[in-house]
Amino acid sequence: MTTVRSDDVEFPHSREHDVTSSPNELQRHFERTIEHDHRIEPRDWMPDGYRKTMVRQIAQHAHSEIIGMQPEGNWITRAPSLRRKAILLAKVQDEAGHGLYLYSAAETLGADREDLTVRLIEGRQKYSSIFNYPTLTFADVGVIGWLVDGAAICNQVPLCRSSYGPYARAMIRICKEESFHQRQGYELLMTMMRGTEAQRRMVQDATDRWWWPSLMMFGPPDVESPNTAQSMAWKVKRHTNDELRQRFVDMTVPQAQALGVTLPDPDLRWNPERGHYDFGEIDWAEFKQIISGNGPCNAQRVAARRAAHEGGEWVREAAAAYAAKHTGGRTGPDRHKSTYAASAAVQDRHKSTYGDSGSAA
Ligand code: BYC
Fold first, then answer.
1. Of 152, 174, 313, 361, which one's alpha carbon is 20 to 30 angstroms from that of 323?
2. Is the CB of 65 under 6 A from ligand 1?
3. What is the DSSP string of 158-194?
4. 291, 294, 301, 302: which to mutate for ligand 1, most atoms within 8 A of CB?
5. Which residues contact 26 (CB under 8 A, 6 or more apart)?
6. With contact defined as beta carbons under 8 Å apart, do 58 and 237 qualify?
7. Distance between CA atoms of 174 and 179, rounded to whole angstroms?
8. Best mutation site among 57, 92, 183 for ligand 1, i.e. most ligand atoms within 8 A of its Cβ?
């Protein structure tokens, strides 16, 4: 038996095993990889359900980064100083980069980026609810950095230990940048709070509007989350939605106090028995409306994404023609496709040998 892992655990590698092992052995190997906290890599055998879950989550995450450029992008031309404009430009550009890492991670699972984009603009794939609210004043830029990026960090730091290798590695860099984004938001708000009474009112108003939507970013309550149990078992997610939401509240309350703003929740108070802050009921009806496409800005966000995609068609064509000329016909996505094709070919050989039962959904 070939062992390739560097630690002390005797560990068969699925690349060696793919063509010789039975479906049960493959499944066991996959489970042991997860159990030992190793990473699943693109060429490893994985159950179809795992692949689908990873494509779903990574694609939604990628779409969120790209759609998430819009609310803040709204303020680039109206930033109040050259310094604030440069910071905001850099931040929005970072979000584009995050989207690209994530689409690349999805491609390692055999997803096609063009197809994912079409699913997004046809409303067949989700993106984060948070980006369907309008940015009404420049204080929203600061509050997005503080609360939205703060929530993103709480949610995404554990994803650096997610079981799918390319996703976990992408998250490391994304989290470093998100933490810079959060600090820039907080610094902007501290500056405004030291300014005029009107500026302080703007910060409070933005906090009032973004607080509850930020809590919704963590997803439905655990009891209503259809994906959490399986994703936790596969170590895709390391904490439940409610655990991370609580962590965010506990982290943010002292930051609000230091800033001098009030969080808009009369039920928010320290609970010494639990060792956590209690907080009020989230408006889940609003959340459901938003993720069903009926939020204040859903139509506008998707229309802008569609226009950018259609307007960029000639650029993609030109880039593909240029790449084909310089690589003898092999373009970037094809490189991933060949990785996937190799992994799919191995799985197909299994199916022809053992039937479809090797794929545990
Ligand atoms: N918005 O069973 P559940 C950023 C969906 S980017 C919309 O709990 P799961 C940033 C969920 O997808 C922030 N949909 O699902 C960018 C599922 O749908 P389907 C994005 C939501 O996957 C630019 C259904 O509801 N972060 O921070 O176990 C500028 C049931 O939910 C939402 C990520 O994507 C939502 N809020 O857990 C600034 C992080 N919540 O497909 C900042 C990665 C849930 O079953 N993703 N849904 O119909 C995750 O960690 C998890 O996917 C979630 C949801 C915690 C979001």
1. 174
2. yes
3. GGGG-SBHHHHHHHHHHHHHHHHHHHHHHHHHHHHHT
4. 291
5. 14, 17, 18, 45, 350, 358
6. no
7. 9
8. 57
The model's pTM: 0.88
- Contact indicator for 178, 152 with CB cutoff of 8 Å: yes
Q: For residue range 254-266, what is the model confidence (pLDDT) as tens digits?
A: 999 999 999 999 9
82-141 pLDDT, tens digit each = 999 999 999 999 999 999 999 999 999 999 999 999 999 999 999 999 999 999 999 999
User: Could you tell me if the CB of 288 is within 6 A of ligand 1?
Assistant: no
CA triplet 38, 43, 46: central angle to 5 degrees? Answer: 65
Residue 82: both structure tokens together: 């050259």
Residue 275 Cβ < 6 Å to ligand 1: no
Q: Please tell me the distance from the alpha carbon of residue 347 to that of residue 335, in angstroms, as a whole number.
A: 19
DSSP-based three-state secondary structure for 9: coil
